[in-house]
Every structure is written in C-alpha cells, then in structure tokens.
Write a sequence for this structure.
C-alpha cells in the first residue's frame, strides 16, 4: 500500500469526539480546509458510528482512507463504564486488616443535612476484596513478609469467582513495591493473560484510599477500554483507514491507543479536555495569554482556565460525583481518581435543565434535566416541564422553527405556554420576564463554575477572555462575560463540536509522578535530581518508543509542595536544569508566590517548605504547527433567516434583531444580533459588537 | 442607560428574584471558599485531615446567611458565639478588628473550639462578619489534646479565651499570642491553624467586597436580610405540612467517665403546632462531673440537625431556617452546662441528643428519619514527647455506622449526620506520628437487624511506637447500644481493648485517660447502628449480599432474619426461608412489634435513677 498522498489532495488530521448523544467528527487539512459531521452515537458499539461518520464524509468529499494522516479521539467509554457500573468483575488484593479502604472512602458526606443521599456502590464488592498477610512500615521496611502460598490461594479464589481483572494495593507500597510485585508474579503465573494492575505502577503516591481507588478503577475499566480500542482499530482497518490512533487523556495530552489500553484511568475525562486544549491553541494564535473556557451542552456547563498559555490541572477528581465545583472541597461523592486532569468546574446547567418556582417563591434552574428524552417542551417529544432551551425560545434567542439547520424542528408556542403556566404565573411576571429570570439564574450557576476556577483561586477574571463553545456556550457567553466584567468573548468555529475540533491541536503527552517527601532546604539536591532523572528517563523512553526523535521531545518538571505540616499541596513548575544551591531558593520562592496568590498570605519563614511529590510531563512535539494559518469551512452556508423580536431584559425589552451567518460578520457589526451556525447559536446583546477574525472566530467585544 | 444584560441592580426592584438568586449563590460560594482555605492551609491533623472546623458568613448584625460544607452541628453554635462577642465589644468594633473566643460560658462550645470572627466594613459601615471555628489540636490543660472526658471542672481543660481582639484596628495583639503560645503543647502548629482561620476571613472579605462593588452596599445588606426571611419562609412552609402533636423519647449515656457506670438520662420532647416546632430536653439528667456536658448552643445544633434532616433539602443553610424551631434546655442539665462544669467531650452528648431527637421524630413520621447511629464520634488522642523532648499530639474523631433509615439501610463507614469528619489517611498518620495502624476495617455481625439494617461498624488498631504517651479516649454505647425502631433491633455495643489477642489483653471502659508504652496496641470498635422495621420483612437478597460479603454470619442470617443461604449457588434458599419466616411470625403470636427496642444492660432499671434525678430537681 502506498503511503504517498494522492496528488492535489491534502492529508487530514481527524478529530472524533463521542458523547452520550452525538458523535462529532472534524477533518482539518494542513491548509485549513475544515469538514465537519455530527451524527447520533451508536451506544451499543461506539466504533460503528465513527466508521459510518467517516464513511459519510469520505463519500461527500471524495476522500479515501489514506487521506487521513492521524485519528485523534476523545471518548466517554471509560467514564460510562464507571458511571453505569459496566466495568468487569474485578478483584482487589489488599493488606490484612485493611479490607474496606475502598468502601470506607474518606467518611465525608457531600450535603450537610441530607439523610437520603447514598454512598456510591463500591466497584469491588467485599467478597472480592481479599486481604493478604503482610506489613510494610512507614519507612518502607518489610515487617511481615508476604506468604506466597496465601497469595496463590487468594488469586485462585478470585479466579473461581470469575474475576476478569485484579487490582493490587497494599499499605505503604508507595515506599516499597516488593510485595505488590511478588503478587503480580503470582497472578501472571496462575492466570496468564488476566488483566491486572498494581498500585505502585499506577500511582506510587502516599494516601491509601486515593491509591486504592485509582488502581481499582484502572483495573475495572481496563478490559472494556482495551476491547473498545481493539474493535475500533479493526473497524478502521476494515474501512481502509490505517492512520495512527491517538487518545485524549483527562490531562489534555494525547497518548497512543496501546498506552491508553494499559492505563485507561488516564482517559476517563477524555471528552471535555479536547475543548480546553483547542481553546488554548487558538488563544496562543490570537495572542491571548489569559482565557476562561466555557463549554455548555445539554445537561452541564464546564469551565476551566488557561493562564500564561498553560491549562490548569487538578491532581485528582471524582467521576460521577454529581455536580462538582472542581476538585475543590473534599465532598465524599463519586469515584475518586488521583490522576492529573484538566481542572474543570462543572455545574448542572444545560439547555435541558428544568426551570421551576419553589415553595419560597424563588426561581430554580436544575439540577434536574429533561435530558435528550423527553427533552425541552418545544421538541414536542412529551416534555411538559419548561427548560432553559424553552426559555431561550421564548426570548427569541433560539430559532423558533428549527435547530441544526432544519434537522430538528421546534414548536415555540409549546415553550411559551409552559413557561407562562409553570414559571411566569406563580411569579406574577410576563412570560418573557420569567424566561429572562431563568436565563439569568442559569447564568449565575455557570458563573459559580467560572469563579471556582478563577476568582476563588485568587485570579482576577476581568483580565481574562472568555472562550465560549458547546451547543449552548455561545448563547450564554456574552451575558456571562458581561456579568463577570470580562471584555472579550471568542466563539470559535464549529463551536458546537469544538471538543472534537480541539483534539486536533493537542500534543502527545505523558505524565509521571512519585512521592518524594523532603524538606527542600535540608534535602540533598543530588537525591532529588536522581529521582527526577528516573522519571525523565521513563518519559523519554516512552516517547522514543512512539517514534519521537530526541529533538521533538520536551521535558517539563513540577513539584507538589506545601509548608511542612500541611496536607494540601500546590503544584509549581521547577527549573529545567538539575537543582543546585542557587535554584533551590528559586523553587521555594515560586511556591511561596503561588501560595500567597492563592491564599492571600505566606507562612512565617520559620516554617520550612516541603516537597511531597515530584512530577514530570514528557511532551512529544509535532513536526509542524498544528494550528493552520486560516480555516475554510467547506459547508455551504444557508441563507440567513429574517430578523426577529428578541428580548434582552426588562430594561432593553424586545428588540428587532438581525439574524446573521458567520460570513456576514466580515465587518465589525453592532449588537443586538444573533449568529445562527450549523451547530450552535451565538447571541450578541445590545451594546456589544461582533466581528469575524482570520481564523473563523467570532469576536464579541463588550 | 445601563447595558440591559449587565448584572441587575436593586435600585429599582425590591423583589427582584433574579438578582436575589444570583446573590444567594455568591454568598454560599464565599462560605465554601472559606472552608477550602482552612482545609488547605491548616497544619494539624484534626483540622486538615479530620476537617473538624466550620465556616460561615453573617450579615452586619451577626445573623448567619450561609454555612460552608462543613459540620452540621456547628451551625447552631456560631450565632451564639458571635452574639456574645458583639455584646462584649458593643461600640468598639472597628475596621481591622479580628475577634476570638472559646469560652463555653460566654457562648463557646468547648475550649478546643476557637472561634475567629472578622467584621467587614464598607465606607465605615459594618456590613458583614466572616466566621470560622476550628477544633484546635491542643489548648493546654491536664491531658494532651484537651479533649479528655474525665475532667471535672473547666479549669482542668485548658486556656479559656473570653471574647478578645486578636487584632485591634489592624494591630496584632502580641500579648494574647504570647500567653496563648505559652499555654498550649504544640504552639507552632496551633498558631498555624489559627492563621488558616485568619486566611479564610481574608478570602471572605476580598470576595464580599467584590459583591459590594457589583451590587452596592445597600442592595447587599438588603439581600442578606432577605436570605434569612426566605429561609424562614420555606422552613415554615415545610413544617406546616407535618402532623401536629407531641412526642417524647428517652435514651441513656453509659456514664461520664468519672462516676463510672452511672447512666445519664437523655430525654426529649418534640412539639409541633402549625408552622412551628419545639425541641425540649427537659427531663434530661442534671449536669455531671465529667466533661460531657453540652452547652446550650451545641444542644441547639443537635436539635436543628435532626429536624433539618427530615425537612426538604433545598432550604438554605442560613440562620432563618432555625427560627421556627425553638430549643429548650434547662440550665444546669447535661443539655445546658453552667459554671464550672467541664465540657471538653461534650460532642458525644450532642450526637446522642440528635439520635434521641430522631427517636421522637420517628413517632411523628413513621416513614422518614432514621434510628440511632454509633453514638457520634469516638475521640482518640495520643500525646507525648519524642526523645528530643519535642511534643507530638495525635487527635482523631472517628465515627461511621449510621442508624438504619426509614427507607434504606444505615451507611457503613460514613460520618454521622451531625458531623462531617473526614478520615485521616492511614499512611499519612504513619508518616507523621509515632503510630502504626494494624487494622481499619468493618467488623461482622454487629449491625442492628431490621427491614433496613443499621450500619456496620469498623475497628481500628493503633500500635504506639514511641517510649510513652498519654492515651485519652471518649467512646460510648458500650452499655447502651443503638436502639432499633418499628421492630428493628439494636446494634451491638462498642468496645475498647488494650493489646487484644495477647497475654496482656486488657478490656477498657468507654472513657478514660491512661499511659501507654512502646508496642502497646489500642483497639477501638465502634457500636453498630440500630435497625428499622421488621427483620423478617428484609429483602432476602440484601441478607444474601451481607452474608456473601462476610458482614453477616449464616447463623445470624437464620436467627435474626429467617433467611437461609445456599452457599454453593450463592442464592437464597427460598423454600426454607419462607418456612422459617412463617414459623417465626407464628411464634410472635400476632403481637404487634414495639415502636422502640433497646438492649439495655440486664441489671439496669432506670426507674431508680429517674426517681433520684426527679427528686434532685
């Protein structure tokens, strides 16, 4: 088979993002040609929809498999397996006396006075959590040696129970993995080929619950993710697409499908990461150093920040913890994963969020959602409770007849009567005023998410620009920015499928960490450097194995630090060069500055600064710039609909508002106006201006 | 004209539901962000890992408008403490002031709980207070950790801080800090935690001033009042829907750790009429010599926690929600201590008052609420000196077995509804203290049977690795286990043992202070939660799950639930189970199941004590 592209046909990078409802596909050529497709996800076998969607685009544009250079993929297959408890039957081998670490969790409850809330079911039932007699002390010394015969019995018992994967997490194994590795050998000899994970390999960090939970989740979803990736690869091959497959990780970097199958815990929050990375790349191109990303779909809204060109990362997060304000306060909800992830704050506010008036006479939005079915009242699929989308129809923000350029028809009168009856009536307001109230309150929930990643970490959000995407992001973006005192909103091209678009701009990235507790001022730098070098060597080896030459490998070092005695760390970048007597104080000052910025004070200099974990990010750089100079969307634009009446609050009232297409914005235009795209609707309020830039972004200035 | 989509201002609208909801969210976020700050910048395990602290935000009159995601029991106490400070410094509260106090006899709870309040001013007008309270790992006194249950007067329990200024118009009160540091065992860490509280106040002030900038000072003040009016309105609407009437409940505390084995009575009456409720602890024992006397403020928190738990969830955590719920606790009783009573270990009594209140509420609402939990957290403090004479203090509060709920099992391993403590990571404790854990896991056959069973308790084995230390423990429900309701059965009692399974094994009481030495192993086992409803009505599949998970033995599955498990197929033996259950029902002879089932000691006859205590009054 020839690998030479056909003449005059550019090769494409392809981004594929699978959500619960839709599979979004984006093709981008080096010269900026952009092809997009949104199709329904095939829930039984996600690979089907991918191959079908690719096939559709091939036919529509006369392409063949070898025109695809690389396939970059974001998937919810890992998080779905966790949320729906559809991982494999997993066994957990633990230390004698500590059988219930996974189930006891951290004892915390996420609500003060709630007796109805239930703890998430443990992913491994107690009968499959089996202890082995052994003890390693807090210095890493073996106090009670492992009894191999007992391990064999335990493994055999699990096999009789039919486990399909085994996780191993022993107390203090972060200091000394000797027992975990011995168990690994037993598993490999008793059950060759059985997937298994030991905690020292997955997360060699202190804190047994965090390590146990992360290792268990990895084992629990490993066979599912592995099978999925194999099926996808086979389906692609069968369709003549032999391009390399890269997976988006929760941390915003890409890994190969082989690596994803080995450490699936890294791709659990694969989906939302794509949008943030895409925004980061576009912001760099636009010269915007500080941005807030705002991604709003049908059920939730997510915010994150990019600061000085860097995405912000959390060291742990919970899957299925309900609606989270980031990883900020130990809430006890969901399934804890201690892996680096883009720090997203998520609130339950989406187009489907239900609007009601409570007993105290306050307007409530969400967190319950009408979901995809029955959906908003205007969809006419049996929904009776007014949703945010219905309010947006009442306000005229959303086209009263249809969405997705006619692929989904709407009944605006249904929205109006639902809002009038369920919200406006009880409040004694007009329907439009009531709808506007709900719009603003939904916005205030989303502002909590944005504040959680910015203001609450000591960042003044007024100096940031807002990147608004997702099906509903561009509708709320300008209003939110205005409320938060932000001056610029960027609505990227293909905003409604931007998570998939963003995949195209990500780099290959591997993260490594290890507990290395030392007081900085008294630790020997050679010790620290040696530990770091070990992680760096891992990173280089991994990237070289993936085909990156040394000149395209970049290593970045970080340290988790705190004032000695504290339990919560801040991650700060460390100098590239090995530490020495002059750079140790620099690292200390970097930490102290970050601490002061976050908490408003420094601790007295008598309290030493302690390093807890060392970290390395190994980046595989692309051969060429990933962001093209300009984009050309090849989708033919439909004629713009006529102007309509749109409501902008009690003061501005109803205004006759032009409805434009993106291409109509070549010149700066004053609001109010609405841009109707294929996949989203962008609202530009009165007093704001909008224009198109060279990269296809709508820039809204406030 | 303003841009129409700008954040709404109150200038025109006095009842603007939009701006109000926006503001309510913002204030709740401030209280949560304060909690994050304390959690992340504190030094001692009890604050940073155990999360024994609370944060709240109050209006300029000192009325709470939001509480952070912290401890339920503290919400009742913060207003009392704040009012005490405001009264004490009336006319002398200025920008730059920061107040502190811990004195139970001036509105505090117990000495380790230090309140820090910072007033927030705008243009010379006091608009708000940032409020934090943290349990400090040591405040001096006779026992490391300052939490001993067996102290007999307040003067043994540590340094008393009446309302004082930590900062006076921005000037640090060095005198106080010097005296304080000289009186506590680990001053650098304790002051570090105090600094964490100050940081939280700083963060609150910064965010609040942004709100003022956005909305204007008048609007902000108006909205803060409005939040409490709203909270009161929704609470009254919810109470209105409950049946009217009066219900009483009795339970007993093992002892106070001083007068060993002398039970202490808790008695509560709940009265409900219209949109108001009264929770009355009259009939509870007179205050005791040991340090488990509750303060009025803490008793309020105990009562409110139980009532709030049976009301709808979306009521804001603001003071207005408690206005329709009056709490009565006569002075000089276990529920309202007066000078010079000791109260360091009062939390246990508060937890038990919440449990007893659930007992009264269950009569009002047979399908809501819960039965008794493990009795609230067990306190384990281990303090001593390393060879180099540096001191260490490990303080832990641990609880986990819930009572069964009217609609589901009690939780296994979850903080009590009145607290929300987190568990320390065992590996972190081992890295920081001379303590090794030999176990931390569930113990089978201990939960109270019922249609819905109580929570399974866990045990912890602590091995001590230094030369010598003082171990102080506060546990309960050793003689008076968690009760069962509506046919549900009591849980099994708690246990404390030194060096279990060795020739040196020594059973211990619930509350004690004693020396331990290198190599000693202390085991504490929590009490099992009580059950709710007839065990014969329990879904046999739930019994199967417990048996399979080795939390319930075959023998108890048969005797308590009438369920027989086929271990080969891991299935319920339906035929035998039906027969067993039928004969068990027959044996009852159609007698109605009692509302409450206790497992009081065989020799206990409360009537004597009740008579004596009645005579004392």
């Amino acid at each position: 088979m020839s690998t030479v592209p056909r003449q005059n046909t550019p090769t494409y990078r392809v981004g594929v993002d699978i959500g619960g409802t839709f599979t979004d596909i984006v093709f981008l050529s080096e010269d900026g040609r952009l092809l997009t497709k949104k199709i329904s996800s095939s829930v039984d076998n996600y690979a089907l929809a991918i191959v079908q969607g690719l096939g559709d685009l091939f036919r529509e544009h006369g392409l063949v498999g070898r025109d695809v250079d690389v396939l970059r993929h974001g998937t919810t297959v890992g998080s779905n397996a966790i949320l729906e408890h559809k991982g494999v039957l997993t066994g957990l081998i633990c230390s004698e006396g500590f059988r219930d670490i996974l189930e006891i969790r951290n004892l915390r409850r996420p609500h003060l006075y709630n007796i109805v809330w239930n703890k998430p079911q443990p992913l491994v039932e107690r009968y499959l959590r089996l202890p082995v007699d052994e003890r390693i002390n807090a210095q890493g010394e073996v106090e009670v040696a492992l009894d191999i015969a007992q391990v064999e019995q335990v493994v055999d018992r699990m096999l009789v129970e039919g486990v399909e994967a085994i996780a191993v997490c022993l107390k203090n194994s972060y200091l000394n993995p000797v027992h975990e590795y011995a168990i690994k050998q037993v598993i490999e000899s008793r059950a060759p080929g059985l997937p298994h994970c030991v905690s020292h390999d997955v997360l060699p960090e202190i804190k047994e619950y965090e390590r146990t939970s992360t290792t268990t989740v990895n084992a629990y979803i490993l066979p599912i993710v592995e099978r999925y990736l194999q099926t996808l690869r086979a389906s692609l091959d069968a369709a003549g697409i032999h391009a390399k497959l890269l997976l988006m990780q929760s941390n915003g970097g890409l890994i190969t499908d082989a690596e994803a199958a080995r450490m699936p815990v890294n791709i659990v929050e694969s989906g939302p990461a794509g949008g943030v990375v895409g925004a980061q790349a576009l912001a760099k191109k636009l010269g915007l150093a500080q941005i807030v990303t705002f991604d709003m779909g049908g059920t939730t809204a997510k915010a994150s920040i990019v600061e000085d060109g860097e995405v912000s990362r959390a060291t742990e997060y919970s899957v299925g913890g309900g609606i989270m304000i980031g990883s900020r306060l130990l809430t006890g909800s969901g399934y804890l994963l201690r892996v680096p992830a883009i720090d997203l704050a998520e609130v339950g506010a989406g187009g489907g969020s239900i609007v009601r008036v409570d007993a105290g006479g306050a307007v409530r939005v969400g967190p319950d959602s009408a979901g995809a079915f029955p959906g908003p009242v205007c969809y006419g699929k049996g929904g009776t409770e007014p949703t945010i989308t219905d309010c947006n129809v009442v306000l005229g923000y959303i086209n009263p007849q249809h969405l997705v350029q006619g692929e989904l028809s709407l009944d605006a009168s249904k929205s109006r009567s639902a809002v009038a009856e369920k919200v406006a009536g009880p409040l004694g307001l007009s329907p439009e005023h009531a709808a506007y109230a709900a719009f603003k309150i939904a916005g205030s929930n989303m502002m909590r998410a944005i504040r959680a990643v910015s203001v609450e970490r000591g960042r003044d959000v007024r100096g940031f620009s807002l990147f608004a995407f997702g099906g509903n992001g561009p509708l709320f973006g300008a209003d939110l920015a205005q409320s938060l005192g932000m001056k610029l909103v960027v609505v990227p091209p293909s905003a409604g499928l931007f998570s998939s678009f963003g995949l195209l701009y990500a780099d290959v990235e591997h993260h490594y960490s290890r507990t290395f507790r030392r007081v900085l001022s008294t630790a020997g730098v050679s010790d620290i450097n040696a530990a770091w070098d070990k992680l760096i060597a891992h990173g280089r080896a991994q990237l070289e194995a993936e085909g990156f030459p040394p000149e395209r490998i970049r290593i970045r070092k970080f340290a988790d630090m705190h004032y000695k005695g504290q339990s919560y760390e801040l991650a700060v970048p460390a100098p590239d060069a090995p530490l020495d007597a002059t750079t140790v104080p620099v690292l200390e000052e970097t930490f102290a500055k970050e601490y002061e910025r976050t908490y408003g004070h420094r601790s007295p200099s008598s309290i030493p600064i302690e390093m807890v974990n060392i970290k390395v990010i190994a980046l595989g750089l692309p051969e060429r710039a990933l962001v093209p100079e300009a984009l050309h969307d090849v989708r033919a634009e439909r004629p713009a609909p006529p102007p309509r009446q749109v409501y902008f609050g009690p003061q501005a009232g109803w205004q006759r508002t032009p409805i434009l297409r993106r291409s109509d914005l070549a010149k700066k235009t004053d609001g109010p106006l609405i841009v109707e795209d294929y996949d989203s609707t962008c609202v530009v309020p009165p007093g704001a201006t909008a224009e198109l830039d060279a990269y296809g972004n709508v820039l809204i200035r406030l | 004209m303003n841009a129409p989509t700008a954040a709404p201002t109150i200038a025109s609208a006095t009842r603007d539901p939009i701006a109000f909801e926006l503001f309510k969210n913002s204030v709740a976020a401030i209280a949560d962000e304060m909690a994050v700050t304390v959690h992340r910048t504190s030094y001692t395990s009890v604050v940073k890992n155990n999360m024994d602290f609370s944060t709240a935000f109050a209006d300029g009159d000192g009325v709470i408008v939001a509480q952070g995601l912290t401890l339920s029991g503290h919400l009742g106490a913060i207003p009392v403490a704040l009012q005490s400070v405001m009264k004490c410094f009336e006319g002398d509260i200025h920008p730059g002031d920061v107040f502190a106090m811990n004195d139970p006899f001036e509105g505090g709870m117990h000495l380790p709980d230090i309140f820090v309040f910072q007033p927030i001013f705008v243009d010379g007008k006091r608009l708000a207070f940032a409020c934090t309270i943290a349990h400090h790992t040591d405040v001096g006194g006779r026992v490391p950790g300052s939490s001993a249950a067996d102290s007999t007067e307040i003067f043994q329990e540590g340094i008393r801080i009446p309302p004082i200024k930590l900062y006076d118009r921005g000037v640090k009160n060095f005198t106080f800090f010097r005296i304080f540091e000289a009186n506590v065992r680990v001053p650098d860490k304790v002051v570090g935690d105090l600094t964490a509280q100050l940081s939280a106040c700083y963060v609150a002030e910064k965010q609040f001033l942004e709100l003022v900038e956005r909305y204007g000072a008048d609007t902000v003040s108006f909205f803060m009042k409005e939040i409490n009016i709203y909270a009161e309105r929704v609470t009254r609407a919810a109470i209105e829907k409950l049946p009217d009437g009066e219900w009483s409940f009795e339970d007993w505390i093992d002892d106070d750790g001083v007068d060993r084995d002398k039970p202490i009575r808790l008695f509560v009456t709940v009265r409900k009429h219209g949109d108001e409720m009264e929770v009355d602890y009259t009939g509870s024992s007179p205050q005791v010599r040991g340090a488990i006397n509750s303060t009025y403020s803490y008793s309020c928190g105990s009562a409110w926690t139980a009532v709030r738990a049976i009301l709808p969830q979306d009521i804001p955590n603001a003071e207005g929600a408690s206005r329709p719920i009056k709490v009565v606790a006569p002075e000089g009783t276990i529920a309202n201590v007066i000078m010079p009573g000791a109260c360091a270990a009062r939390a246990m009594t508060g937890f038990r008052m919440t449990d007893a209140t659930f007992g009264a509420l269950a009569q009002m609402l047979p399908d809501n609420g819960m039965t008794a939990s493990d009795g609230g957290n067990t306190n384990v403090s281990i303090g001593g000196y390393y060879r180099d004479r540096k001191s260490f203090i490990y303080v832990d509060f641990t609880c986990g077995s819930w009572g069964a709920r009217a609609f589901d099992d009690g939780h296994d391993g979850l903080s009590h509804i009145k607290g929300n403590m987190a568990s320390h990571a065992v590996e972190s404790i081992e890295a920081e203290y001379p303590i090794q854990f030999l176990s931390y896991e569930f113990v089978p056959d201990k939960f109270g049977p019922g249609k819905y069973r109580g929570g399974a308790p866990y045990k912890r084995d602590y091995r001590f690795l230094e030369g010598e230390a003082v171990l102080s423990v506060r546990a309960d429900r050793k003689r008076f286990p968690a009760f069962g309701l509506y046919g549900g059965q009591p849980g099994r009692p708690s246990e404390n043992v030194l060096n279990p399974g060795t020739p040196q094994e020594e059973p211990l009481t619930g509350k004690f202070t004693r020396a331990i030495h290198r190599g000693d192993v202390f085991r504490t086992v929590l009490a099992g939660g009580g059950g709710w409803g007839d065990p014969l009505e329990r879904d046999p599949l739930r019994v199967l799950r417990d048996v399979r998970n080795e939390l319930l033995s075959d023998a108890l599955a048969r005797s308590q639930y009438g369920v027989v498990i086929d271990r080969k197929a891991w299935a319920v033996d339906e035929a035998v189970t039906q027969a067993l259950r039928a004969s068990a029902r027959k044996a009852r002879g159609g007698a109605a199941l009692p509302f409450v089932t206790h497992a009081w000691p065989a020799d206990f006859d409360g009537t004597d004590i009740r008579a004596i205590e009645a005579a004392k009054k």
Notes: DSSP finds 13 helices and 24 strands in chain B. The two ends of chain B are 70 Å apart (CA to CA). Chain B has a mean pLDDT of 91.
